[in-house]
Design brief:
- The complex is a heterodimer of chains A (251) and B (694).
- Chain A has 251 residues and is α/β, with parallel strands linked by helices.
- Chain A contains 8 helices and 11 strands.
- In chain A, strands 5-1-2-6-7-8-9-10-11 form a 9-stranded mixed β-sheet. A two-stranded antiparallel ribbon of chain A has the order 3-4.
- In chain A, helix 3 packs parallel to helix 4.
- Chain B is of the alpha/beta class and 694 residues long.
- Chain B is built from 27 helices and 15 strands.
- Chain B has a 6-stranded mixed β-sheet.
- In chain B, helix 12 (274-286) links the parallel strand 2 (258-262) and strand 3.
- Classes of the chains: A alpha/beta (251), B alpha/beta (694).
Chain lengths: 251, 694
């Protein structure tokens, strides 16, 4: 039995896919995006969170069976209400074997994979093929900018995206709009060019910058160091997608 | 809302109408004593004098009139007489009949003169029965008093050139209403007079049922458009907010002016109509605390209706409150209610399911303190080295004892006559009997408060002492005695590591289920009451979530100190059906699953699952639709009643610091909504401590 590490399970997560959903947040992420609003999702280890409310350990190690049993308690309710289970993080691909095992133990429930796309192609295809819907986060198309702001190269991400585009699996590309970084016309145009014509693409979701992004760093013993102006309004350029004939919505 | 309504609302919120309030009350007592009037005749006289004392106020922009100017209810019995009347008897709360619901359809369909005809026929038939004759005469006196008041309003309207009002008042409330406008005017006046006569928590019943024929006809004939009907309805709703400060309640706003929408007709067909939706829309746009709205639903209810209701929830008024017909109706039937009556149920002031026009039920005679029942079992039980089963046996006994004590006190219940209120009940005028003598249904309701705290406490004992052995009986005992001072880590373990109700965990939930089974058994074993009714066990907490830990003068219920789930002495309990304050929760689905395990076919008095959602949840139409689905899940899981609140913690904290900036901030307190800044600090604090889902 495979074990995994989970830092939160959120019921009635209204922004993580269609209908009534429960989202599993897997701990550990290869990326370290400057705007990450869930820094406790980055480390693959349990860690101490200190806040005015007290101390707690973030990150619980569970077996696939334990997690699946917990989720199965609600499967019927979720299915009866247009929803299901979302695997998010952190980065689910980092614990692909675990997630696959959990999914295989779940009742027949709608699965949404919420991923940065950074992971081995084989892991990505195994997980995506078991999902009914993929939320694919796409930040920056320029490799150097991507490396700088997320700490990782985006070659694997784009490769997995193309793979997804060929699978015919329904997916949504989600672009976090970080002022001056990802929301530039150039980047959004590059995103539009990248995804244009992909089979299964339902729409682009633009996610305006969350000004509370830095609020959890201190309690996780981390430092928030954005190299951009948080107060600058984001460039909500939906036109670039509309012109390319791509459905776009602002979350 | 147009400018006229906005101005009207503003005036009511600022209390402009209070300038018309009279300084003193009319002395009714002296003439009652001089004439040696009987008690029923004194009450009828009270209604007469109160109506006569009313001074006519017609604001230029009003289309539905009546502004109360009499600032209170004068006594009709001297202190000495009162002591004699009530010697050896139990009074419910303040004494007068309260928290029942009239069948207002009788008023709008028959008019007061129609009711008088019924009374006169009975008087002829029962001419030899002095008691019946007296009741009928009292009832007729009140009818004439109200018509007299309406006539004075009509005369004043005539003098000021308001022929529109004259026309309406010439028709109602004396005669059957012919239009939606007339029906609203009739209800406004006659409902207000119930308050004027000293009865309180005066419900409005199935408003969308008895009012719909009038609205429907007006819409069909073109007399009204949806827009003009909404405007009338909004004005009616504003008028209900005028006199909250005059109404008795534990806190201001606790006035029981609730109405019930939707559900099924007595024949079992869907009862939802355009007025159902209109009430939801108008209440949403108006944003005032009255009337308090209940929506009857089932798993099959149209999601669009739930979406509309959720838009109302978003306003933060703390309503609508939902009840699940699939659960409630069958439970009522299995406890002796006729199917057609059960299908006609409404929600009383807070939560209780009652039958309009057919129930003289006292639905809130008190609360079983589950935390006290458990605490008084755990301590002696552990000391005596008993098994968990034996401790649970003590819990059952304690619950039974509390039920017997509460119900026993009500065997001598004394209800004052209410001849005016009786006009709108089935079977009073018909057989010449005041409603205080009983109606078709005469049951008593008892609530069970602090259930989650008590279940968590029992779960902690099982888990830490009996299963894991990580805690000794002596240690727990000492920690409780010390109010956890010096036992920080023990308390931490109880709070953080224990199985908790609300997380869909078998351990704590099974304790919860058993507590309510014990409660239902105790009510069942009690048998029939002196009023020939049964005991209805429920799940509300009312103000008991504070009183049971802080104590309150005159309260029959026991007070409890620190308890084994980790709650310190004096800290509040969970409200209604909600998790213990401060526990870690999985989320709203698990919460509903936990509370769905209670046997609502036996626990049927009412009392909602109470859930707070952050106002950010209601941000867009998609999330509102999902919240509507959450309501549907409540019904799908077979839960009974749901209270969903939208709130913003920062706003509440700021309102404590700067009340002047938050005069219109409304919160749900227990079975009712009120203005946050008008609440006592301990009630503000309990709301702040509630868990809310983001």
């Amino acid at each position: 039995m495979t074990s995994g590490i989970v830092f939160d399970i959120k019921e009635f997560s209204i922004h993580d896919g269609p209908g009534i959903r429960t989202t599993v947040f897997l701990k550990g992420c290869p990326l370290a995006c400057q705007w990450c609003h869930n820094p406790e999702g980055q480390s693959t280890q349990p860690q101490l969170i200190r806040s005015p409310a007290g101390e707690r350990i973030s990150g619980r190690i569970v077996t696939a069976q334990e997690l699946a049993s917990l989720l199965n308690q609600q499967a019927e309710i979720l299915m009866a209400n247009e929803g299901g289970i979302t695997f998010s993080g952190g980065e689910p691909l980092l614990q692909a074997d675990f997630v696959v095992e959990v999914i295989d133990l779940l009742k027949d429930v709608h699965i949404c994979l919420d991923t940065s796309g950074f992971g081995r192609v084989e892991h990505f295809t195994r997980l995506a093929s078991r999902s009914d819907l993929v939320y694919f986060d796409l930040k920056l198309i320029d490799p150097r900018a991507h490396q700088h702001y997320t700490g990782c190269d985006n070659e694997l991400i784009l490769k997995n995206l193309r793979m997804l585009g060929n699978m015919g699996k329904p997916f949504v590309v989600r672009v976090p709009l970080v002022p001056g970084i990802t929301d530039t016309d150039a980047n959004l145009e590059a995103v539009a060019n990248t995804v244009q014509g992909m089979v299964g693409l339902l729409r682009i979701d633009l996610l305006p910058y969350n000004p509370a992004a830095g609020s959890k760093y201190a309690s996780a013993g981390m430092v928030f160091t954005p190299e951009y102006d948080e107060t600058q309004p984001v460039n909500l350029n939906t036109a670039v997608f509309e012109q390319a004939g791509i459905r776009v919505s602002v979350a | 809302m147009n400018q006229r309504l906005k101005d009207m609302k503003q005036r009511v919120r600022e209390g402009a109408h209070r300038q018309f309030r009279q300084a003193a009350l009319y002395d009714v007592l002296s003439e009652c004593e001089l004439e040696c009037l009987s008690w029923p005749r004194r009450i009828a006289r009270l209604v007469r004098r109160q109506c006569e004392a009313e001074q006519v106020v017609i604001e230029p922009d009003e289309r539905i009139v009546f502004t109360r100017t009499v600032p209170g209810v004068p006594p009709v019995v001297s202190d000495m007489e009162w002591a004699q009347i009530t010697a050896g008897r139990t009074l419910h709360e303040l004494g007068p009949v309260s928290n029942i619901c009239a069948d207002w359809g009788l008023l709008v369909r028959q008019g007061l003169l129609g009711r008088k005809q019924v009374a006169l026929e009975t008087r002829r038939k029962l001419a030899d029965d002095p008691e019946s004759v007296e009741f009928i005469d009292c009832a007729i006196e009140t009818i004439e008093s109200v018509i007299g008041l309406a006539n004075r309003y009509a005369e004043a309207a005539h003098r000021s050139g308001r022929q529109d009002i004259v026309d309406i008042l010439q028709q109602v409330p004396a005669n059957p209403a012919h239009s939606f406008h007339e029906a609203l005017q009739s209800l406004r006046l006659c409902h207000a007079v119930v308050w004027l006569g000293g009865n309180y928590h005066v419900g409005l019943g199935r408003f969308d049922q008895y009012m719909w024929p009038f609205l429907s006809a007006d819409l069909q004939s073109g007399q009204l458009t949806l827009e003009s009907a909404e405007e009338l309805l909004a004005e009616f709703f504003i008028s209900l907010n005028k006199d909250s400060d005059l109404y008795p309640g534990v806190q201001q706003g606790d006035n029981g002016q609730s109405l019930t929408l939707g559900g099924v007709t007595p024949q079992g067909e869907s009862a939802v109509n355009e007025l159902t939706r209109m009430v939801l829309r108008v209440s949403r746009d108006l944003g005032m605390i009255d009337p308090k709205i209940n929506l009857r639903i089932s798993p099959q209810t149209d999601l669009d209706l739930l979406v509309l209701a959720t838009e109302l929830t978003r306003e933060g008024l703390g309503f609508p409150q939902y009840s699940n017909d699939d659960v409630v109706i069958s439970a009522l039937v299995s406890h002796g209610y006729d199917l057609e009556d059960a299908r006609d149920y409404v929600v009383a002031a807070c939560w209780e399911f009652i039958i309009p026009g057919r129930g003289m039920e006292v639905v809130n005679i008190g609360a079983v303190s589950f935390p006290a029942a458990v605490d008084q079992a755990i301590r002696p039980g552990l000391e005596a080295g008993e098994s968990l089963g034996e401790i649970q046996g003590r819990v059952s006994e304690n619950i039974k004892e509390q039920v017997n004590q509460l119900a026993g006190a009500y065997e001598t219940l004394l209800l004052p006559p209410a001849p005016y209120y009786s006009l709108f009940m089935h079977g009073c005028l018909e057989i010449g009997r005041d409603l205080s003598q009983g109606l078709k249904y005469n049951n008593l309701g008892i609530h069970g408060a602090g259930a989650s705290n008590a279940a968590d406490a029992l779960a902690a004992v099982k888990q830490f002492i009996f299963d894991e052995g990580s805690l000794s009986a002596g240690e727990l005992h000492s920690a409780l005695d010390a109010n956890f001072e010096g036992y920080g880590s023990l308390r931490h373990m109880l709070v953080e590591d224990g199985s908790k109700v609300g997380n869909n965990q078998d351990l704590a939930d099974s304790m919860l289920v058993r507590l309510f089974d014990d409660f239902a058994n105790a009510c069942n074993e009690y048998g029939r009451t002196a009023r020939n009714g049964i005991l209805r066990p429920g799940t509300g907490s009312a103000m008991y979530y504070i009183w049971l830990t802080s104590g309150q003068e005159g309260m029959r219920e026991p007070v409890v100190g620190a308890t084994a789930e980790g709650r310190r002495k004096g800290e509040p309990l969970a409200a209604n059906l909600s998790p213990t304050l401060g526990v870690k929760l999985r989320g709203p689905i698990s919460l509903l699953q936990s509370f769905s395990k209670i046997d609502y076919q036996r626990i049927f008095n009412g009392g909602p699952i109470t859930m707070e959602l952050s106002d950010t949840v209601f941000r867009n139409s998609e999330s509102i639709r999902k919240t509507a689905m959450l309501v549907r899940i409540f019904a799908q899981l077979g839960c009974q009643q749901l209270q969903l609140n939208s709130l913003n913690l920062e706003t509440l904290l700021d309102a404590q610091k700067h009340p002047e900036n938050h005069k219109n901030l409304i919160v749900r307190v227990w079975g009712w909504s009120g203005y946050f800044c008008e609440l006592a600090p301990e009630f503000q604090q309990q709301i702040i401590l509630r868990h809310y889902y983001q």
